[in-house]
Amino acid sequence: MxxxxxxxSYTIIFAAVMVVIVGSILAFMSSSLKDRITENERxxxxxxxxxxxxxxxxxxxxSVNFVSTDKVEGEFKTFIKEQLIIEGDKIxxxxxxxxxDMKKQMALASKGETPKLPLMIGEKDGKKYYIIPMYGxxxxxxxxxxxxxxxxxxxxxxxxxxxxxxxxxxxxxxxRYFMDDFTGESILKGTEYAGIAxxxxxxxxxxxxxxxxxVDALAGATITGNGVSAMIxxxxxxxxxxxxxxxxx
Length: 249
Known about the structure:
By secondary structure, the chain is an alpha+beta fold. The chain has helices at 8-52, 72-79, 102-110, 176-179, 222-237, 240-247; strands at 80-87, 90-93, 117-124, 127-137, 142-149, 155-162, 188-189, 192-193, 197-199, 214-216. The chain has a domain at 80-247.
């Protein structure tokens, strides 16, 4: 018997069957790729952390090249000597501290609860690096990154990324020329914590002055720049007590 495809009931049944079939396929793919996705997310975090402390595959002054995924786990184990979780006055070691979601921890802190703050201690060429994750809000969506400090609270490197900033404007926070400006800046002003501001009115466009707690803003990206300034200040503020013990040694 021929099926009357002109009936509304046929259209509804056909659509329902297709939804079930497509949904099943997507669920299967999501489930089967879950381990690969998790692995890639882990590699990406390791690459970003290493980049902040200057372990990368950059080949020229303008490139941003991470350690390759086939080498990154080995390099991470080589250069990251210790991982800590700072929870109030309690500090514990944990080899997977870097996987902690900073967004969730900052949300807890904003509600007056005690966050679990990850901190990585790296070593390269006999020098220690204290690498801290950061999370904030740009113009359109989330921004995040890592900052590497020495024991004098001077920035040794950063890595920034974003979810949806404007191409050619706010999205340039992940460009080499912007990130490199932070190297050598101090998060202290004298002995007081000050953070680092992305300043539109900065009088040092070449970033030669390293004791002003400022870097030059990105053209046309004032709100994203303000977001980076706030992200650095608010994220590092959570680590202030620990960092004071480091700088006092």
